[in-house]
């Protein structure tokens, strides 16, 4: 049976979505650790429930469907999209208060 590329992408997207739905954000008691440039996009995405909204506010494409989010650091991602690293990290860390 041959699968076309659209079907393969759909299967991969569904698998990634299922994996993301299973993962839980950091829910430790007390203050959460700061966001930092060396975190992967996925680590940042699940570190705080509000993080996806910060990504959206900075006009990142859909990170939840991106296959490289598990490897790409925040620093690499903001560099690729021309976003100021300090501003982005600051916005993420504002979630901690």
Can you give a write-up of this model?
The chain is elongated. It is mostly helical and 97 residues long. Helices cover 51% and strands 0% of the residues. It has five helices and no strands.
The total strand number stands at 0
How would the global form be characterised?
Answer: elongated
Residue share in helix: 40-55%
> What's the alpha carbon Rg, rounded to whole Å?
15 Å
Instruction: Note the quaternary state here.
Output: single chain
Low-confidence stretches: none
Distance between the termini: 53 Å
User: Sheet with the most strands?
Assistant: none
Helix count? Answer: 5
Q: Which structural class do you get from the secondary structure elements?
A: mainly alpha
Outline the fold blueprint.
Elements: H1 5-22, H2 41-47, H3 51-57, H4 74-81, H5 85-93
Question: Quick gist of this model?
Answer:
The chain is mostly helical and 97 residues long.
Question: Main traits of this protein?
Answer:
single chain; 97 residues; mainly alpha; 5 helices
């Amino acid at each position: 049976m041959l699968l076309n590329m659209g079907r393969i992408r759909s299967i991969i997207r569904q698998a990634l979505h299922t994996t993301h739905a299973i993962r839980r954000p950091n829910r430790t008691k007390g203050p959460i650790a700061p966001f930092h440039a060396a975190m992967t996009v996925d680590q940042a995405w699940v570190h705080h429930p509000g993080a996806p909204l910060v990504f959206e506010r900075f006009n990142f494409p859909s990170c939840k469907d991106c296959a490289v989010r598990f490897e790409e650091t925040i620093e690499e991602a903001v560099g690729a999209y021309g976003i100021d690293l300090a501003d982005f990290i600051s916005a993420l860390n504002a979630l901690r208060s």
